[in-house]
């Protein structure tokens, strides 16, 4: 880890969030967003007659679902420093420079590159597991860290 970052975190008494907490927060957020999509499309889901129609319906709303995920991630990270999943797991996102909640541009950057990471088989998340600062691709591009709240 960069010594400057390590010193700043130590000075402020901030510790990095562990992988298990981050994974559980991801699971909570993805489950919540999936339920919102199902709720929004409930009438259409009920009208489907077989699994193939349900898959086609879901695929028809991929762009809207991605947009919803970007807005969700960007808003909650900017406003609260954490998504609902992160709040439940008592972790939060901070900017490396300020050690504060990310601003709107940083939050939006992080949310967009999170989708990119997901599109590439979650390789950006794997990167975070192998990185000493536990920074995923979206953390790297936004210059953020996920820390214990």
How would you describe what is shown here?
With 149 residues, this protein is mainly alpha-helical. The protein contains 9 helices and 2 strands, in the order ααααααβαααβ. The protein has one domain. The chain has helices at 3-12, 19-40, 42-47, 51-60, 62-80, 84-88, 104-119, 123-130, 137-142; strands at residues 91-95, 144-148. A two-stranded antiparallel sheet has the order 1-2. The radius of gyration is 17 Å and the shape is elongated. The two termini are 20 Å apart.
Features:
single chain; 149 residues; mainly alpha; two-stranded antiparallel ribbon; 9 helices; 68% helix; elongated
- The SSE order reads HHHHHHEHHHE
Shape: elongated
**What's the β-strand tally?**
2
Share in β-strands: 5-15%
Q: Could you report the average pLDDT, rounded to the nearest whole number?
A: 95
> Biggest sheet, strands in spatial order?
1-2
Number of helices: 9
Low-confidence stretches: none
- Oligomeric state, counting identical vs distinct chains: single chain
Biggest β-sheet description: 2 strands, antiparallel
- CA distance, first residue to last residue: 20 Å
- Residues in helix, %: 55-70%
Structural domains: how many: 1
Radius of gyration: 17 Å
Element layout with pairings:
Elements: H1 3-12, H2 19-40, H3 42-47, H4 51-60, H5 62-80, H6 84-88, E1 91-95, H7 104-119, H8 123-130, H9 137-142, E2 144-148
Antiparallel strand pairs: 1-2
Helix pairs in contact: 5-7
